[in-house]
Amino acid sequence: MKCFSIFGKDKSKSKKRETRSAPELRNQSESSDNPALSRTTKSLPSPRSIPELYKEKEHNLRVFSLDELRDATNCFNRKLKIGEGGFGSVYKGTIKPLSGRGDPIVVAVKKLNAHGLQGHKEWLAEIQFLGVVSHPNLVKLIGYCSVDGERGIQRMLVYEYMPNRSLEDHLFNSTSTLPWKMRLEIMLGVAEGLAYLHEGLEVKVIYRDFKSSNVLLDENFRPKLSDFGLAREGPTGDRTHVSTGVYGTYGYAAPEYVETGHLTIQSDIWTFGVVLYEILTGRRTVERNRPTLEQKLLDWVKQFPPDSRRFSMIIDPRLRNNYSLNAAQKVGKLANSCLNKNAKERPAMSEVVESLKQVIQELEEASSSSVNNSAGPSSSRNGTRRRSK
C-alpha cells in the first residue's frame, strides 16, 4: 500500500542537543494546514486542544537517550527488526524499568527514517496524541528520543511490545487464519478504541489512518490501534469538518475526504466499514493480481448483498464453513451502513460497538445452545455455518 500524498520536509532547525521541550512539541505541531490545532480567540469557551492536554501529561512519558536505545536494540541490530513502514524501521528491544529495579521491559522502538515520506511532524503528532489518550485498545507510548547532532536528527518512539504483530499479518497470511469469533472480537475492540477517540475525550480525535496493518495484537490477541502520526483533532464549535491535505492509504479513505479534503469523524466510520469487509472476505482492499472485476474489494462485494443467497460466496474460504452465516450477514449489513455515501447517515462508532456486541452475544448463545443439545441426532459443530432449507 502506498500513501497518496507526499509529506514535505520539516524546515525547523535546532541546536545540537538532546531535547525534550514541551513548548517545541506544542508550537511545531500547530501548523497552518491543521485548522483544528490552530485556535482563534472566541468569546465562547472551547474544549482544550491536544497540545494543551498534552502539557498536563507530558511528565508521564520517558525521555530516552540515544545510547539507551542503542543498548536496548543491540545497536539497532537487523535481527531485532520487526517491521518497516513510511516512518522507518521498528525494532524489538529491552529497557530497564524507570526505577532501575525489576525485570527488563520488552518494547518496540520505532526509528524515524530521515529520508522517508513521513517525518518530524508526524513524530510530534504521535507523541502528543499518545501522550494524552489512554484506553485498553490503543497502543501505549512509553517514551521518545530526540537528538540533533553532527550525524543529523535522531527521532525515535518507544511503545509497549505487541507480540502477535498486526491484524494484517494474520488476516492475509496464507499459512494460517484467524477464527471467526476472534475476528469479531478484534473488530469490537477496535470499535471501542475508535469510540473512545470520537466520544470519550474532551476533544474529538479523528484517527484518519485506520487499516488492518495499524491494528496490533497483544499476547491475548487483544487489538490496539497504533500509528497516530496522521491523527487530527475533530472540528469544534460550529465547524462541520477539518480542512486538510489528503493523507492516508489508497483504498481506505472516505470518498468525500478524498474529493474535498474535508475530514470528519465519519471518515473513520467509512474506513471501519472497509476493514469489516476485509475480515469477512480475507481479501485486501485492493489486489491487482485478481481479475479486473475483483481487484477493488468494495466494488466486488457489491455484487453479493448481505441479504442475498449469493452473500456466502464472498466469505473467506479459509474459514472452511466454521462461521455463522447469520452473524456474517449482520456484519455485512453493518459494514454497508458504515459505507453509506451520505456521511451523515453513517452510524456513530458507539452504535457500531453495540451492534458488534449483539452479534457476538448471539453467536455465544447459539454456541451454548448447540453444546446443550449435542446429545441429539441433529446437533452441529459450534460456530459453524448452517444452511437454511
From TrEMBL:
<keyword id="KW-0547">Nucleotide-binding</keyword>
<keyword id="KW-0067">ATP-binding</keyword>
<dbReference type="Pfam" id="PF07714">
    <property type="entry name" value="PK_Tyr_Ser-Thr"/>
</dbReference>
<keyword id="KW-0418">Kinase</keyword>
<protein>
    <recommendedName>
        <fullName>non-specific serine/threonine protein kinase</fullName>
        <ecNumber>2.7.11.1</ecNumber>
    </recommendedName>
</protein>
<dbReference type="InterPro" id="IPR008271">
    <property type="entry name" value="Ser/Thr_kinase_AS"/>
</dbReference>
<feature type="domain" description="Protein kinase">
    <location>
        <begin position="76"/>
        <end position="360"/>
    </location>
</feature>
<comment type="similarity">
    <text>Belongs to the protein kinase superfamily.</text>
</comment>
<dbReference type="GO" id="GO:0005524">
    <property type="term" value="F:ATP binding"/>
</dbReference>
<keyword id="KW-1003">Cell membrane</keyword>
<dbReference type="InterPro" id="IPR011009">
    <property type="entry name" value="Kinase-like_dom_sf"/>
</dbReference>
<dbReference type="InterPro" id="IPR001245">
    <property type="entry name" value="Ser-Thr/Tyr_kinase_cat_dom"/>
</dbReference>
<feature type="region of interest" description="Disordered">
    <location>
        <begin position="1"/>
        <end position="51"/>
    </location>
</feature>
<feature type="binding site">
    <location>
        <position position="111"/>
    </location>
    <ligand>
        <name>ATP</name>
    </ligand>
</feature>
<dbReference type="InterPro" id="IPR050823">
    <property type="entry name" value="Plant_Ser_Thr_Prot_Kinase"/>
</dbReference>
<feature type="compositionally biased region" description="Polar residues">
    <location>
        <begin position="26"/>
        <end position="46"/>
    </location>
</feature>
<dbReference type="InterPro" id="IPR017441">
    <property type="entry name" value="Protein_kinase_ATP_BS"/>
</dbReference>
<dbReference type="InterPro" id="IPR000719">
    <property type="entry name" value="Prot_kinase_dom"/>
</dbReference>
<keyword id="KW-0808">Transferase</keyword>
<feature type="compositionally biased region" description="Low complexity">
    <location>
        <begin position="366"/>
        <end position="380"/>
    </location>
</feature>
<feature type="region of interest" description="Disordered">
    <location>
        <begin position="364"/>
        <end position="389"/>
    </location>
</feature>
<dbReference type="GO" id="GO:0004674">
    <property type="term" value="F:protein serine/threonine kinase activity"/>
</dbReference>
<keyword id="KW-0723">Serine/threonine-protein kinase</keyword>
<keyword id="KW-0472">Membrane</keyword>
<dbReference type="GO" id="GO:0005886">
    <property type="term" value="C:plasma membrane"/>
</dbReference>
